[in-house]
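Today's session is about reading a structure prediction critically. Students often jump straight to the picture, but the first step is always the sequence itself: look for stretches that repeat, for charged clusters, for runs of hydrophobic residues. Only then move on to the predicted structure, which in these notes is written as discrete structure tokens rather than atom positions. Here is the chain we will use throughout the hour.
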Amino acid sequence: MRVLEGNLRTYAWGSRTAIASLRGRPVPSPHPEAELWFGAHNAGPASVLTADGTAETDLLTAIDTNRTAALGTPTAAAFGGRLPFLLKVLAAEEPLSLQAHPSSEQAREGFDRENAIGLPIDARDRNYRDPWHKPELVVALSDFDALAGFRAPATTIALLRELQVSELDPYLGMLAGQPDSSGLRALFTTWLTLPEQTIGALMPPVLSAAVTLLESGRSAFGAELRTALQLGEMYPNDPGVLASLLLNRVHLTPGQGIYLPAGNLHAYLDGTGVEIMANSDNVLRGGLTPKHIDVPELLRVLDFTPVDVDDLIPAIRTVGAERIYLTPAPEFRLSRIELDGTGMTQPASISFDMPGPQILAVLSGQIEVRPQGGAPITVPAGRAAWLADSDPDVVVRADSARAVFFRALVPIRAQ
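Below is the predicted structure for this chain, in token form.
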């Protein structure tokens, strides 16, 4: 049982305030801070701290030293001796790329295929850097906006008709003539493969019509149109701007979550959240990025089945102070726990007896984690506790008036 310092990722789309504030650092930060990783990903494992707060080793090395003790026999066997999840704090001030993730079967086949042709793991045009899938769940800490999944074609047809752009008529007819997943595939593929000159001619009238509609105040698609305008300003002549008009526009309030399975085309737009995902690097991009886009491979991975936003929102099971977000992912389970140091509005403590591995990431206040028969550790906001499978059961109590933390674990019980 040890305290973890997260691995900070400074991507251009990040926030200069959210993660810095969480960690008690000066605001604004010198650079955009996009993600804080609590996990054992080889690109950025969390640091394992000594009692005086210095980094002794990293979590990946600590797990590799004794995988059975760290992970437990069932987890080590099921996931190849790896910690199968990566827990993050994500803070977006600008949109991320349009992207999707493969299924387990697609990831294994793609990884083997690229290995067979000798493509280096770090090659820019590599799609599959490991043989794992990458389902993910994000829970909002602030208002959080995203694009996620293809919406019902009938609704998209209504949006495109509302724009009244004659240049869109051939594409509108394509979807209206086949208002199903096949029509969505055909339209998305057409837009993604249009020559740059054609995109350049199509975008101005579409965005101009969006401005006119918003100024009129009579559109039922205000959020969708504002998003297209934002993306069009940031990524002129990018077909991903048009693709955004095909996707569900999702708004989460704090505490709400969204689960993204394999094949779901999505982009986080803005906001701060806790994200947990399978420990994988496999991303197929579809636009809104200067990075590599492999259109044929993306189309092979994408699921064009229309999805309702409500079907992406996970159910929540409440057990005492713990709110558990229910997903089918075998690699992770995430829950939110709020404790009250006074015991007035929430319990002051909670006991955990489920086998590890577990990570407790503190988002507000401070917690004390006390193992049976052992010395406690104190974990402030912006840090996390690592609980190995071999650690004893623990009691976690609020060490402040209010403490909020997220608990990540592998939903496998010892056999």
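Discussion point for the tutorial: Residues 196-216 form the longest helix (21 residues).
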